[in-house]
Amino acid sequence: MRLMIEAFFQSAFGEIAVLLVMAAGIGFLGVMLRQPLIVSFIAVGLIAGPSALDLVRASAQIDLLSELGIAVLLFLVGIKLDVKLIRSLGAVSLLTGLGQVVFTSVFGYLIGVALGLGAVTALYVAIALTFSSTIIIVKLLSDKREIDSLHGQIALGFLIVQDLVVVLAMIVLSAIGIGAAGEGAGHGAGSVPMVLTSGVAMVAAVIVFVRYIANPLTERLAGAPELLVIFAIAMAAIFAAVGQIVGLGKEVGGLLAGIALASTPYRETIAARLAPLRDFLLLFFFIALGSALDLSLLGAHVSGAILFSLFVLIGNPLIVLAIMGALGYRKRTGFLAGLTVAQISEFSLIFVAMGVALGHVGEDALGLVTMVGLVTIAASTYMISYSHQLYALFGPYLDVFERRGTPREPMEPEDHHGDGPRVIIFGLGRFGTAIGMRLKARGVRVLGVDFNPHAVRHWRDLGLESEFGDATDPEFVAELPLAHALWVVSTVPIHPTGLSHEDTRTTLIQLVRAARYQGRIAVASHHATDTAALLAAGANLVLEPFQDAADRATDLLCGAPEQARPDSAPIVMEDSQTS
After folding, report:
1. CB within 8 A of 187, min separation 6: which ones?
2. How far is Cα 141 from Cα 135, in angstroms, rounded to an integer?
């Protein structure tokens, strides 16, 4: 049996199979603990590395997959860098993104020097701390259904700014590597013009490809989606290989390949299909990273890692909160957006790894940044998942970060005159909008509330009253004109599979009752099992859109007597004290 086990581990295929099983098992444990897979994958490398089980032998195969994963990752970054998207960056995203980068790099450098790091090492570490993980943030905000909220959109904006900084930083590193290679080879500066010429040629090739080839070619390939994916991977690989050969680095090459396809109408399809492959290949990058770390060396950097981690977890959100407050946003918006930068990203590790490859920093610097990454990614996951609870705890102490009147909030509250709205609807999606339009047609005054600025603007375009706000914000709910409302309706969709299991409907019920609302409450539910719980929580009426639509369709199909259309029948608004 022992010989069979040894023979199994002597096979590269068997070794990778074992690593995949470990990744699946430890990844499942990480998901149960609500941790991103990046933490689990690095843990797999640490456990399989020489400091623990010492299972990694097929380093060449793992490194190859790791490099391909980096190329695909940078390709997907490039394919998102559309000129139109960059132009759409608002002042808040640009100023917040650049402000956070400058703040983190300057103070991070000072902290590194104070800890006794060399000037170059401190600079590398400081720059690495400025990058936040787009993958993790988008995943967490999507799970919470806050990707379209104001703070979610602002966070995505300054993540784009950070991606641009990543690109510039890697290009600068590549240029430094060119000069160092030329000097070491005895060519002086002779190699620099050659490589720069090659770089210009690659950029020119990308421009020509975008101008004359990209759209018609991808349109032809789109007829066979599998071929389109293969073509995209081939683009990423060949550009990365050429970039590495000419001295620009595979990272810059992969980035240029993505930019070459960024203007095509199929870029979202390509990105969606390559995302699982990216995650699979990056598994090997993190395994290779973890297996290369010596835990005995990491012990010397525990105090530094803790200090840097606290700096990222506390300092980054505070600078975002301060900048957004100065620009005129509410403290709540700034706080929720600031929590999204309370971690470093996979690019931080790649950036320092490039420095190690160039001989600028040692392996201990990579170990230090990796420890900071593990701590901040793990902690920020919970911070973002429970952001609303954290705001409820710290909100009263953040008044210094909010300007009077918050002039930059995109949707100012309506001037509610007269008796106020009779129905207040939370959630301005298709169902909420359909209810609002029909109530308006019947002469009922309606106020819509949503945390998506575009949905609020759409309602106003339809001639309906609307406000920007969050149904889970106690201060906002208490300020609504609830006194004359007969109904409060929630059509906010609930997605229980996300990281945050808070039910917005029950939270809203509690908040409006706490604000002394005496009217009736209706909530939408897509699951019959929720009805009893919602009624027990205080709802007077549970709407089941699919079941109600099915009942109406059945009546029509069975030839039921023609009933008055909803938009023409009179409405009876019951008194709030009657059943």
Report:
1. none
2. 10
CA-derived radius of gyration, the chain = 27
At residue 578, the pLDDT reads 35
pTM for this model (two decimals): 0.60
**Structure tokens of 62?**
């793992």
CA–CA dist 521, 353 (Å, integer): 56
Residues paired with 487 in a beta bridge:
423, 520
- pLDDT tens string 256-300: 888 888 877 777 778 777 878 877 887 787 777 667 665 665 566
Q: Is the pLDDT of residue 238 over 60?
A: yes
Residue 233 corresponds to which amino acid?
Answer: I
Cα–Cα distance for residue pair 247/202, rounded to 1 Å: 12
Residue labelled with tokens 């609870």: 389
Say how many C-beta atoms besides its own lie within 10 A of residue 183's C-beta: 13
SS (H, E, C) 282-334: HHHHHHHHHHHCCHHHHHHHHHHHHHHHHHHHHHHHHHHHHHHHHCCCCHHHH
Contact 170, 249 (CB under 8 A): yes
Neighbouring-strand partners of residue 468: 450
- HSE at residue 69, side-chain half, CA atoms within 13 A, is 23
Contact 212, 175 (CB under 8 A): no
Tell me the three state secondary structure of residue 353.
helix
pLDDT reading at 573 higher than 60: no
Mark 469-483 as b/e (b = at least 16 C-beta within 10 Å): bbbbbbebbeebbbe
Pairing of strands 487-490, 423-426: parallel
- The Cα 334–Cα 351 span in angstroms is 28
Which residue's structure tokens are 């600031």?
A: 338
Distance CA 103, CA 316 (A): 8
End-to-end Cα distance, the chain = 75
CB atoms within 10 A of CB 325: 23
DSSP state of 561: P
Give the largest Cα separation in the chain, rounded. 93
Query: Do 338 and 92 contact (CB within 8 A), yes or no?
Result: no
Query: H/E element holding 74?
Result: helix 59-80
**Residue at 335: amino acid letter:** F
